[in-house]
Amino acid sequence: MTDAELLERADAIAEHAYAPYSRFHVGAAVLTRDGRVFEGVNVENAAYPLGICAERSALARAVGEGCRPGDVEAIGITASPCGGCRQWLWEFRLDRVTFPVRGGELVTYAPAELLPDTWDLDA
Ligand code: THU
Questions:
Q1: Could you read off the pLDDT of 17-28 as tens digits, one per residue?
Q2: Is the per-residue pLDDT at 16 higher than 90?
C-alpha cells in the first residue's frame, strides 16, 4: 500500500469522527510491517482534555491487536499531527508520516523530523 493510499483510508474513516465540539473531523490509518491497516478517528468529550486524536486512536487499535513499537511502518493522517501525537509517532518508531498541507499537497516526514531532540525513557 502506498502512502497516498493510506491517506485515502484516513480520509474515508474521518467521517466516523466524533467531534461535536470542534466539528473538526480527523482520520488516521496506520500500516503495520506485516501488511495490516488500522484506522482511527478523533473522539471528543465534554470535558475537553479527555478527547483523543485520530493518530493515537489508530495506534491504540494496533496495540490492541498486538502491535508494539517497531511494528508500524507508516501512518496517513488527514491533518498535521499535534505535538503530543508526534511523541507517540516517535515512540512507536514509524518510518513515515504522511499528511496534506495547505493546498492539499501531501508531505511525508520521519518522526524525528517532526520532533527534533526527542525525549525517551528506558522501558
Ligand atoms: N486532532 C487530531 O485528531 N489529531 C491531531 O493531530 C490534531 C488535532 C483533533 C483533536 C480535536 O478533536 C480536533 O482535532 C480539534 O483540535
A1: 999 999 999 999
A2: yes
* Sign of the C-alpha dihedral computed for residues 105, 109, 113 and 118 taken in this order: positive
> Is 22 near ligand 1, meaning CB less than 6 Å away?
yes
Q: Which residues make beta-bridge pairs with 18?
A: 43
Of ligand 1's listed atoms, the one at least distance from the Cα of 53 is 3
26 lines ligand 1 (CB under 6 A): yes
The set of long-range contacts for 64-67, using a CB threshold of 8 Å and a minimum separation of 24, is 65/36, 65/38, 67/32, 67/38
pTM of the model: 0.96
Cell digits of residue 15: 467521517
What CA dihedral angle connects 117, 101, 38 and 23, to 10 degrees? 110
- Helical spans, DSSP H, in the chain: 3-13, 54-64, 83-91, 111-114
| Residue 78 in this model has a pLDDT that exceeds 90 | yes
Give, using CA atoms, the residue closest to atom 4 of ligand 1: 53
Active-site annotation holds for 15: no
